[in-house]
């Protein structure tokens, strides 16, 4: 079958002779991916990797480079194992892409995203991915999409679940205020999820003009350019001197990290969602004073996917389809996707690709 595989730094190839996966366990689901998003972690691999993609046999999958890419995807169920009851052939689905050992404490508690073997994902760590014609996924990581939802939009359930998980993990409650730092794909997803969860006001800090406008388009209440505005001072002014109840750093640079804490109200919570390329400077006094909290969020759980899907089905999560800024065939994914996002990232939110060129007609 055809599949887009990562071989190493700036070396991603469309291969035509990748072995087709088959159902080998009673709980397996064979899926034909229809649409797959290019994630920031995919770009990190392309530019600076391998990081998640294993050079040596992965402790869970046993695979190493080359690795099939794609962990933000939707598809159609082709067949199921004998013990699968939650989906059937023909169903439109999306996939919770976490890979885990299933044996450690966090895994047994239903928190596969915290597996002691480290963050691992289908489409980054082996066992196939969404940038292929077929993939096999355990049924407890396959979610049915709401009736009538396009499969292209189904590919957005994964990045939305990343934001949803962070917001739920932080303890956010309806009626509270929030500051989102960075309006790239996860920042936009955070804005939309905060709206769905009842935020009374969502503020955004974004320095680039294109993404600044994107945040406005997605109905953030107040967007600030940190190159022109003191975000901490302006946030306190906008909240009548209180500060925000929650902040979400989706950028992963020193300035946003510091701002995420300093802009909080007393007792507020700062959540880091961003991947970091180097360590940050942190003064514990910034959280000790006024009992602020700082937490990290990685990935998602089953409940996060179900929460997002329910919010979509009930109309609480709106306008997310506008996150898609380009659709490509798999054979254009490197030049039109990876390289486009590297060279013109501020012009895009989410580029998705498909192994089925007929879907682009």
Structure description:
The strands form three sheets. Strands 3, 5, 6, 7, 8, 15 and 16 form a seven-stranded mixed sheet that branches. This protein has a six-stranded parallel sheet with strand order 11-10-9-12-13-14, with helices on both faces. A three-stranded antiparallel sheet has the order 2-1-4, with no helix packed on it. The protein contains eleven helices and 16 strands. It is of the alpha/beta class.
Spans of 5+ residues with little confidence (pLDDT < 50)? none
Helix content bin: 25-40%
**Multimerization state:** single chain
Q: Which word captures the global form? A: globular
How would you briefly describe this protein structure?
With 361 residues, the chain is α/β, with parallel strands linked by helices.
């Amino acid at each position: 079958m055809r599949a887009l595989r990562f071989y190493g730094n700036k070396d991603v190839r469309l291969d035509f002779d990748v072995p087709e996966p088959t159902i080998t366990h009673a709980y397996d689901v064979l899926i034909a991916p229809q649409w797959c998003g290019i994630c920031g972690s995919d770009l990190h691999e392309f530019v600076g990797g391998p990081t998640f993609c294993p050079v040596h046999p992965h402790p869970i999958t046993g695979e190493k480079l080359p690795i099939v890419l794609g962990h933000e995807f939707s598809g159609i169920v082709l067949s199921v194992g004998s013990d699968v009851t939650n989906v059937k052939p023909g169903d439109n689905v999306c996939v919770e892409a976490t890979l885990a050992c299933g044996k450690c404490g966090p895994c047994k508690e239903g928190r596969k995203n915290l597996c002691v073997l480290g963050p691992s994902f289908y489409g980054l760590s082996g066992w196939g991915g969404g940038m292929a014609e077929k993939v096999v996924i355990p049924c407890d990581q396959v979610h049915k999409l709401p009736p009538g939802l396009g499969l292209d939009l189904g590919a957005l359930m994964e990045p939305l679940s990343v934001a949803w998980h962070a917001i739920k993990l932080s303890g956010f409650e309806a009626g509270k205020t929030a500051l989102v730092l960075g309006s790239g794909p996860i920042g936009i997803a955070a804005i939309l999820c905060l709206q769905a969860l009842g935020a009374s006001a969502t503020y955004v800090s974004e320095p680039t003009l294109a993404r600044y406008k994107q945040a406005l388009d997605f109905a953030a209440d107040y967007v600030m350019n940190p190159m022109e505005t003191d975000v901490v001072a302006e946030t306190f002014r906008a909240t009548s001197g209180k500060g925000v109840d929650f902040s979400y750093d989706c950028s992963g640079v020193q300035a946003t990290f510091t701002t995420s804490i300093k802009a909080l109200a007393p007792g507020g919570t700062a959540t880091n969602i961003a991947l970091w390329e180097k360590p940050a400077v942190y003064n514990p006094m910034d959280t000790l004073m006024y009992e602020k909290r700082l937490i990290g969020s990685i990935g998602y759980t089953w409940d996060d996917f179900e929460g997002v899907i329910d919010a979509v089905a009930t109309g609480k999560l709106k306008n997310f389809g506008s996150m898609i800024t380009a659709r490509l065939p798999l054979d254009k994914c490197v030049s039109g996707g990876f390289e486009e996002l590297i060279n013109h990232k501020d012009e895009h939110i989410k580029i998705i690709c498909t192994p089925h060129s007929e879907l682009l007609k």
